[in-house]
Amino acid sequence: MTDQLDYQVTVEELSALMKRTAGVHVDPVTLRQQADDGFDTFGLDSLGLLGIVAELEKRYGLGLPEQAERCKTPADFLALVNGALKTGV
Amino acid sequence: MSGPQRARRPAQDAGERPAQDARRSQARDGDRRAVVTGLGVVSPHGLGAEAHWKAVADGASSLGPVTREGCEHLPLKVAGEVRGFDAAETVEGRYLVQTDRFTHFALTATEMALEDARFGRADVESPYSVGVVTAAGSGGGEFGQRELQNLWGQGSRYVGPYQSIAWFYAASTGQISIRNDFKGPCGVVAADEAGGLDALAHAALAVRGGTDTVVCGATEAPLAPYSIVCQLGYPELSGAGEPDRAYRPFTEAACGFAPAEGGAVLLVEEERAALERGADVRATIAGHAATFTGPSHWAESREGLARAIRGALAEAGCRPEEVDVVFADALGVPEADRAEALALADAFGPHARRVPVTAPKTGTGRAYCAAPVLDVATAVLAMEHGLIPPTPHVFDVCHDLDLVTGRARPAEPRTALILGRGLMGSNAALVLRLGGTAPRTA
């Protein structure tokens, strides 16, 4: 579905996903300000990130690159995921 | 609380000596004693030790119909549900999402136990000075069922990653450790219902081996559809439909047991360390022993339980006549009840007919591994209040026991024996003494 492939994951969406799938609540403003801090500083562990990747893959019906679940910061993660969504990889 | 300066031996710091060494060194000097300083209770009777005790002392019963969603059509009709428990009130979001109800109970009971013991951050000398030991029989059945239904209903992409840890028996120990940053010796006992007592023995060993503090207990959440179906194969499970008839051990009407959820977590500390930080020493874990006699071999459990009792008394240096109250396993299966009465007679001699015996769990149901831990918490409260609680729903005892029924009996119990048996054949006995031994430093 090409209309979805143009879609970009926002900081707001990431914040909502962190809360829903991992129970970690970081408001979008803070998440944007601290986008270069490690996920671990927010209390999100590797299983939590795995859950977010799985959720995005379900939502967009495509496989994200393996590196997605190994991203250390929100900024890296969004750049990688949005790059992948753009090219439809 | 601001912790007073502690005089510490170097060997106490790491707390990583193997258990066998701990037992040998204990046999030599008996220097370090494991005492109970805090109780955390999540019981069908209520949340918190006080609410639980009030109902227990009143001889109240919290057995009722199984009301959990998806269980209506199942043949198990009566159980002890923990009502009014809102995990979100006590457990933060990330632990809520990542863990099952049995771990929600454990995290909540742990907070209660720490608070009850007035054990605060300032009392944690080093993260490595606090260990965690729990026992579990059911694991996270409700969480697991949900994820497995997602797997077979929608596909593997719909299974959350926390399924990998939430169902597991070890989940509660791990999450208590992570949430509180307790990095001392951690363990999980998967040894049947009696494992609740074995966990306390394990905690006592860790204390003797050099760890000052151990969070120890068991909680269970077996009242969800999949978990209940797993239990339906137990011939000992009561199928009775009326809450006042479902669980009546030691009577002619015994027809099995009613299961329960919830449990208890205790704060176990080295006695001197507890006194030095100004804690109230509530009880001493004086002795424990365990045996195994095979699944549902209830006649054989007589010998196994008698040996466990003798072993626990021997470790405690306690004569049978010193035992002031027995918290019975009270399975509610005639053959098992007879075996337990005979085991007491074998181990106690004539004192078996004189010692008051109680089974307050007939008012809550049996929460598997958590059942004997809840009994230990109740025993501490009974000794403190000078009151032996009764055995709800039980009248006309058909064994040669002085079972306390009807109303609580005023007494001055200073030594309690707690018994536990598991459906898979484990037997355990634990001797608990009121207070500590060292003079109080105030």
Automatic annotation (TrEMBL), chain A:
Q: Which intervals hold domain Carrier?
A: 8-89
Please provide the record's keywords in A-Z order: Phosphopantetheine, Phosphoprotein
Q: Which domain of life is it from?
A: Bacteria
* Record bears the keyword Translocase: no
Q: What is this protein called?
A: Acyl carrier protein
Organism encoding this protein: Streptomyces plicatus
